Amino acid sequence: MTTRDLTPEERAILEHLTDGDFEGSAAARTQISTARHAGQWSPGDPSFHILTDGVCPRMDVEDGIFLPSDRPVLTESGSPNGGVMLWVRNGRIDDFEYYCYDEVDRRLPTIDQITTWEDPRVLG
Fold first, then answer.
1. Are strands 71-74 and 64-65 parallel, antiparallel or unpaired?
2. pTM for this one?
């Protein structure tokens, strides 16, 4: 498997999604500190696989979406247009997903575009 260093933007998003105090957060941050980009889901797709150092502690969470990381994404004008999330497999962060509701934007969102489900702009 070919891997590469995360870009500053990719790393900032992963750190943002694991910021806070919740179940698995300390292990998640440790894993992110060692994370490497392990390939896009498909050509041109901003979603990507993640490889973390195998000596990092595992998170004691179920496989699937790492729920604290499931966040909506706003357009630059402030309307909801998708979301981001981390996926976990066997206690390790395994993937970063970015999806859009309509036209697929191939650029990663900025930290300012990532919000919470309680944001009034998302609730409408």
1. unpaired
2. 0.93
Number of domains within the chain? 1
CA 32 to chain centre: 10
Token output for 58: 């595992």
What type of residue sits at position 75?
T
The token pair at 91 is: 């206690």
Task: Kindly report, residue by residue over 47-96, the tens digit of the pLDDT.
Answer: 999 999 989 999 999 999 999 899 999 988 888 989 999 999 999 999 99
CA pair distance 64, 42, nearest whole angstrom: 20
Residues 30 and 56: their CA atoms lie apart, in Å, by 7
**Looking at the domain assignment, is residue 1 inside a domain?**
no
Within a domain: 22:
yes
H and E: helices and strands count for the chain: 3, 6
Mean pLDDT of the residues in the chain: 92
The rounded Cα 38 to chain-centroid distance in angstroms is 14
Helices (H), the chain: 8-17, 25-34, 120-123
Report the sign of the C-alpha dihedral through residues 12, 15, 19, 22, in that order.
Answer: positive
